[in-house]
């Protein structure tokens, strides 16, 4: 099963990549594809929307935090239409 979850990149300041990754992999493990990033300090996000939609259509499940980020970006409102 594939999940969309956060992968930490920053050492001192937390910066996260949003990645599609196999459930059995650890947080810092090998990802399938990078689909965005999230900076909680500056509250910036970048999302590769076509890649995220592709993984969601294939059955990938976002974690709680990634789900909140996608909801704030109004990705689910576009899917419902």
List keywords for this structure.
ribonucleoprotein, S16 Ribosomal Protein, Chain: A, alpha+beta, Ribosomal_bS16_dom_sf, 81 residues, 33% strand, Ribosomal_bS16_CS, chloroplast
What is the topology?
Layout: E1 2-8, E2 16-22, E3 33-39, E4 44-47, H1 49-57, E5 61-62, H2 64-72, H3 75-80
Parallel strand pairs: 1-5
Antiparallel strand pairs: 1-2, 2-3, 3-4
Family: Belongs to the bacterial ribosomal protein bS16 family.
Pfam families: Ribosomal_S16 (PF00886)
Organism: Clivia miniata (Kaffir lily)
Report on the architecture of this protein:
The chain is built from 3 helices and 5 strands. It has one domain: Ribosomal protein S16 (S16 Ribosomal Protein, Chain: A, 2-Layer Sandwich). 30% of the residues lie in helices and 33% in strands. A hairpin with a 7-residue loop joins strand 1 (2-8) and strand 2. It has 81 residues and is α+β, with helices and mostly antiparallel strands. The chain has helices at 49-57, 64-72, 75-80; strands spanning 2-8, 16-22, 33-39, 44-47, 61-62. The longest helix is centred in the middle third of the chain and has 9 residues, at 49-57. Strands 4-3-2-1-5 form a 5-stranded mixed β-sheet.
């Amino acid at each position: 099963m594939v999940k969309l979850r956060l992968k930490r990149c920053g050492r001192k300041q937390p910066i996260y990549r949003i990645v599609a990754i196999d459930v059995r992999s650890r947080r810092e493990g090998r990802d399938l594809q990078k689909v965005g990033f999230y900076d909680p300090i500056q509250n910036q996000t970048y999302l590769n929307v076509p890649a995220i939609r592709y993984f969601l259509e294939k059955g990938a499940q976002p974690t709680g935090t990634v789900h909140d980020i996608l909801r704030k970006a109004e990705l689910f409102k576009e899917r419902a239409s």
